[in-house]
Predict the 3D structure of the following.
Amino acid sequence: HTYKEMLMMMNSGWIRGTYIAMTWNKLYHHSVFSEIRFPVGKLHEDVATSYKLFYSAEKIGSFLKPMYFYRQVPTSIMGQPYSLKRLDVLEHARDAVAFFKKRGEYDIYGVVLCNLIFRLKISSIQVRKHIADSENILADLKREMREKVSELREHRTVGILYKGAAYMAVYMPR
């Protein structure tokens, strides 16, 4: 695959119900880590690095056959109770949007922007469900979702499927 194909698959997974942003299920040449590092002290560090790893790769191979077994343990991020630390994923998604916009990769930028909108919606649902006295946080998330939808409205290379899904995520009730 090309880096664009992998990035498009990675960032459109939320529409198809598949996610390939995880770094645990891939093999990498050591040279890609010469300048790319996992952020220290952040949750969802794979979201912060996978797009950079794909972007820097000369070529990307994939197999249809599952070759890894992932074991979920109670001490993993997903096994822990929800906390505001999980909002680190939004910082990583914002960074990805800026990364592709800065490089003029507008087709990927649009899909990454949709991904951010979806992550904002999911985060707002989780905050509402698990965090007490969260009105200010929820208002900030809602404001950012609307801003990003306005930004998406101006984007010309994003298809109607992506735009429609993003609009529904923001404007439909929980």
